[in-house]
């Protein structure tokens, strides 16, 4: 299977073909990070189809499941033969009053595949849980997600509490309605449009 075929299979949500393609490419010596890039390109196409109204929420949820299944195979490949050193730690969660987890799960998967330890707090996470996780795990980065505009204020409170607990930590925010203006409003250090943005921003934070 070519890289283009894997992108197409991911975009068309053909899980059997995606899994077979990932295994085939790994077996033929394609670097896991390149296979991951193909999967991400497929996910980008899924996002565009969703924005265009060609895919609905059910397809979006399915894409996250297919991606997670395929990425699990990459995680094994990336850590095979001695493993990769962990580059840093991210505490990650969807803020209180928001139960969406698709984007968060994709970020967690891709961060893991890129060598970062992720402490996933789940969804609808109380402010105190973020603070406790920061104190317990000493992360360089805290990632907060939300898909509801009504959660912006609690995100702002969460950022303030995390910063009070550890002023050195970098707070990144993301999610469907989140942009640079929202990042500024909630007091975050940065806004990530997608999972790859989160990887690049975290690399800068730990360097």
Short description:
The protein is an alpha/beta fold and 207 residues long. The chain is 58% helix and 12% strand.
Distinctive features:
9 helices; Rossmann fold; single chain; 207 residues; alpha/beta
Description of the structure:
This protein has 207 residues and is α/β, with parallel strands linked by helices. It has two domains: 3-80, Methionine synthase domain (Methyltransferase, Methionine Synthase (B12-binding Domains), Chain A, domain 1), CATH 1.10.1240.10; 88-206, Rossmann fold (3-Layer(aba) Sandwich). It is built from nine helices and five strands. It has helices spanning 3-11, 15-27, 32-51, 57-79, 102-113, 127-137, 152-165, 180-186, 195-206; strands spanning 88-94, 116-120, 141-145, 170-174, 190-192. A five-stranded parallel beta sheet has the order 2-1-3-4-5, sandwiched between helices. β4 (170-174), α8 and β5 (190-192) form a beta-alpha-beta unit. α1 runs antiparallel to α2 and α5 (102-113) packs across α9 (195-206). The radius of gyration is 17 Å and the shape is globular. The chain starts with a helix and ends with a helix. The model has no long low-confidence stretch (mean pLDDT 87).
- Taking strands numbered 1, 2, ... along the chain, how are they ordered across the largest sheet? 2-1-3-4-5
Helix content estimate:
55-70%
Shape: globular
Strand-residue proportion: 5-15%
Distance between the termini: 36 Å
The Cα radius of gyration reads 17 Å
Number of strands: 5
**What would CATH call the architecture of the largest domain?**
3-Layer(aba) Sandwich
**Which class of the largest domain in CATH terms?**
Alpha Beta
Average pLDDT metric: 87
Major sheet characteristics: 5 strands, parallel
CATH topology of the largest domain: Rossmann fold
Q: Determine the number of helices (DSSP H or I, runs of at least 4 residues).
A: 9
Oligomer category: single chain
CATH homologous superfamily label of the largest domain: Cobalamin-binding domain
Organism: Acetonema longum DSM 6540
Domain B12-binding N-terminal: 1-86
Protein name: Cobalamin B12-binding domain protein
GO cellular component, one term: cytosol
